[in-house]
Amino acid sequence: MAEITIRKRPRTEAVVTQRKFFKKTARGKVIKVLRERYLRDDVACGIHSCGLCAHEADVLLPSSGSLHHASFGDGHFVLPDTNVFLSQMDLMESPLFSPPIILLQTVMEEVRHRSLPLYNRLKALVKSDDKKIWTFYNEYRSETAVIREEGESPNDRNDRGIRKATAWYNDHISLARPPVRGQARPPLPTVVLLTDDVANRQKGEREGLTCMSVRRYVEGLPESSQLLDLLAAAGSDSIEPTQAVAARQALYPDYLPTATLLAGIKSGQLHQGHFNANAYNYLEGSVSVPAFEKPVLLIGREHMNRAVQGDIVAVEVFDEKDWKAPADEVVDQEATLKNDDADDSEEEGEDDEALAERKVLQTELAKQTSTTKQPTGRVVGIVKRNWRSYVCHIDSTSLTSTNPTSLSQQTVFATPVSRLLPRIRLRTRQAPALIGQKILVTIDRWERTSRYPEGHFVRALGKVQSKEAEQESLLLEFDVPYRPFGKAILDCLPPEGDRWVVPPKSATDPNWRDREDLRDLIICSIDPPGCQDIDDALHARRLPNGNIEAGVHIADVSHFVHPDTPMDHEAAARGTTVYLVDKRIDMLPALLGTNLCSLRPHVERLAFSVIWELSPEAEIVNVRFTKSVIASKSAFTYEEAQIRKDDPKLTDELTESIRLLNDLARKLKAGRMAAGALNLASPEVKIQLDSSESSDPIDVEQKELRETNSLVEEFMLLANISVARQIQETFPQTAVLRRHLPPPKTNFEKLQDILKKRRGMTLDVSSSGALAASLDVCVDPNEPAFNTLVRIMATRCMLSAEYFCSGSVARDTFGHYGLASPIYTHFTSPIRRYADVLAHRQLAAAIGYTPLHASLHSKSHVERVLEVVNKRHRMAQMASRASVEFYVGLALKARSEKETVIEDAFVIRTFRNGLGVFVSRLGIEGLVTFKCEIQFDADNYVITIPSGGQDVSIAVFDKVKVMIEVEQDKNTQRGRVVMSLSHPIDSRGM
To answer: What distance lies between CA 569 and its chain's CA centroid?
Structure first.
């Protein structure tokens, strides 16, 4: 028998291999956590041809490192510390920055703890094909592992670990390449510690390491002139100024310390919410907080205190005697600050621009007559910044030199596309070359001594108004992921590719397990023209007992997209397919979306079916859910299905099925409306393109809604409601549902007041049913479009619908206000919505088809995923609208070159110096502004314009004619629609 010896490890070793830290639980209890780590001496260095390490990885660092640096002729590797990735990620991601990088485990973990978005970017960087990055697990290599010493901070411990790993690498390279007797020792590459921490650099240099700041390192690279622009603006290293100087320099109040902010929010003295800038007045913003029905108003730069659109801020609310009403004047930043200077905008003192802004505010306050005051306050701190890269263009008037060959650094203004954002100061050597281009700019800091935030140039997108640059800028503006699907994602697709088919029916084939064979049913799909990603198909047939069987069949995406795979992670990150006028950004690879999952006609496809037995009055007798195999008999457009339904000569099974579905849909809709569902409206238009190959718009027309649109909508709603009930019953804590909260009654106050004063109509908002009934009687017999306009305005008073996890909110808040349904989800579009994929997985588990993946049993996981999906859904909607607006502008520009464009419009808002109008035929809003003095009756929503001795009064809901022109927008640099009145008065020149 073999002898076994048990050896006890020395205590000194345990100190190195054990990691101890303290953790605070959700209940506030502090516990000590002790973790054992196993140290090894075989963690590879990652350098090619290293004789001391065994490498099995595909990606290795070149043996000589990089030779492209002025200071390191013998080659070098770069080892960045944590702060380099936290502050200079744009540089690290640039294709021009390509030295071999050693990424330490310590750095990875610290980035993960400090910023999850940057950690995700770092992970993507490591996987990037055009970067040479080796992740070295220094915490598990015996020679590089460090323990925290007595009195040492976690940050100092990590810095020491990074220096120790740098020293080890230099020693390791030297040992791996020993001198050969009789030969001169070959030059060795250097491992350079890249850090902007002065103290860390000094300690490293004392230890004999080669250390450099990021700026100094970049200055030695061949592409330094371009890469220097990517560097984030550094924080101030200067000595703290005296109180007198600081008081003179400060343009904004200092933020309260974080601990004070959190204590104030907890005690209710301060309030937390998202900052929203005012699109009509750049000197005004608001923050919605739970404590007040109306948002907290912020008036003036000082009270907005460097908050940027989307930031989570802490606000202090003033005493009620100091509350104000929102401004009723359009205040344009370009006009007010036209003489601002980028170089001077951070200097102290009262300059012309500050005085101009103060004058605007004082004039506005003096003119205010409105009694509708609301909570007013100021920002006292930032809880969480929402800064990201923004699409901008260089303001040509801010350049000091326009010489295209000049490489001198200039401070210039970058004007964001979004009017909700402030101008950004940046220093660049490329300013003359960037004029007339769309560029990407990141905000780095906003000091209290600077009127504007400071940022750095990331990259150029292309020439202004070129379709490619506009399309990319639009996607970036709304944070839409549009990168091509990577190899790991594409490897998740069926290996047969587009040759994949449903296999022949067999009891042993896993594809047919527990699936119903519905291939003989008369099933068809009804979609918009040109639809390739067909999610849904329908059927209906009469049963012998007099009832009707109706079925909705949805693409079985979850058969191909399995949980916790690269494709699943990518779909979760994208959240939704984004539809632009001439392009679609898919959530899933095209092989699935437009082929294998798409329910195309005359092809067998896997589906998830919801099948009801309905009475002739469309009441549900029973419902069942099943995985199935179907073969759609036809794919109709809405128009084709309508023509077929209406043709009395057609009596085939397919046509009768459509008629049966339509009859049931009418009864289902009547039932919904009787229950209080809202029939709202949105200004939807269709862009007519020149041809399928061309993306040149030739005309804009309103979308025509047919009975068949309603047919599909009613059955999709019914399927979503039925599935919601089933998954919530089975998984009461983690069901993926969708809700639409009732809007606060205060949201409707303005619309109610306008309707009462201008038309003598009453809007009852006590319930969705009362609101629906009120909207039905808001009719002008002389103007059919009036009711649609009121519905559009009512829609804007609503809250947005959102996805949520059933265990995260109270049961009485599950309802969908607009649909008047107590419970709802999204199930019917899994090709283009990730929430639907999750609902499919939960339904499959609910009917016992497959067990539910562990992640969908976790409430916290479902909450995190749905937070991303909600954001992506909102951004996709905004991107789609912006795409339509861009193409409407192009179509109008082409039309205005041939003729004067005059359209009917409704007045929807009055200002002290203008009108807001809505052109229903084009689905667009515009501003008509007046430079002359006009009379403004804020209480009755009327303006009076002097015209040749005769005054002309215009009020909200009045119908006017507007002349439409297209000029270059100073913010977006796209064609901007400019409107002026042509009737009842010609406002040009006024």
So the answer is: 17
Q: Is there a contact between 502 and 596 (Cβ–Cβ < 8 Å)?
A: no
Joined tokens for residue 105: 């485990």
Selected residue with higher pLDDT from 590 and 363: 590
CA pair distance 623, 612, nearest whole angstrom: 4
* 57-66, 91-100, 950-959: segment of lowest average pLDDT: 57-66
Crossing angle of helices 198-206/154-176, nearest 10°?
A: 40
Q: Write out pLDDT tens, residues 488-535.
A: 899 999 999 989 999 998 888 888 989 999 999 999 999 988 888 899
- 521 vs 550, 612, 623, 712, CA distance in Å? 11, 14, 17, 18
Distance between CA atoms of residues 202 and 209, nearest Å: 10
CB 388 within 8 A of CB 942: no
310: Cβ–Cβ under 8 A, 6 or more apart, which residues? 274, 275, 386
How would residue 241 be classed by pLDDT, with cut points 50, 70 and 90? Answer: very low
Q: How far is residue 455 CA from its own chain's centroid?
A: 21
CA distance 877 to 675: 28
Q: Is the CB of residue 307 less than 8 Å from the CB of residue 285?
A: yes
pLDDT over threshold 90, residue 702 = no
723 pLDDT higher than 90: yes
Structure tokens that stand for 132 in this block? 């040479």
What pLDDT score was predicted for residue 286?
A: 92
**Tokens 């106050």 sit on residue:** 749
User: What 3-state DSSP class applies to 223?
Assistant: coil
DSSP conformation class of 592: I
- Nearest to 578, CA basis, from 508, 479, 693: 479
d(CA 61, CA 132): 6
Long-range contacts of 610-614 (CB under 8 A, 24+ apart): 610/551, 610/552, 610/554, 610/719, 610/722, 610/723, 610/827, 611/549, 611/550, 611/551, 612/549, 612/550, 612/551, 612/718, 612/722, 613/543, 613/547, 613/548, 613/549, 614/547, 614/548, 614/549, 614/550, 614/664
Residue 4 structure tokens? 């076994």
Strands 424-428 and 454-463: parallel
H or E element, residue 401: none
pLDDT score of 334 = 59
Query: Is a pLDDT exceeding 60 seen at residue 302?
Result: yes
Proportion of the chain above pLDDT 90, given as a percent: 41
Q: Tell me the pLDDT tens digit for each residue of 512-521.
A: 989 999 999 9
Q: Determine the average pLDDT of the residues in 64-81.
A: 91
Evaluate if residue 250 carries a pLDDT over 60: yes
479, 576 contact by CB (below 8 A): no
- So what's the pLDDT on residue 336? 54
Q: Rounded to an integer, what distance in angstroms lies between the CA atom of residue 919 and that of residue 960?
A: 10
Instruction: DSSP letter for 593, please.
Output: I
Q: Are 314 and 308 in contact (CB under 8 A)?
A: no
Q: Note whether 700 and 888 are within 8 A (CB).
A: yes
**This prediction's pTM:** 0.81
Beta strands of 339-376 (E only): which ranges?
A: none
Angular region, 354: left φ>0, alpha ψ -120 to 50, beta rest? alpha
- What's the mean pLDDT in 569-581? 92
Q: What does DSSP assign to residue 254? A: P
Strand partners for 551: 539, 611
Query: How many whole angstroms separate alpha carbon 630 and alpha carbon 632?
Result: 6
- Look-up of token digits 């689905």: 923
Q: How many CB atoms lie within 10 A of CB 713?
A: 14
Mean pLDDT, range 173-191, rounded to an integer: 84
Confidence of residue 378 (pLDDT cuts 50, 70, 90): very high
40: its two tokens: 């090894």
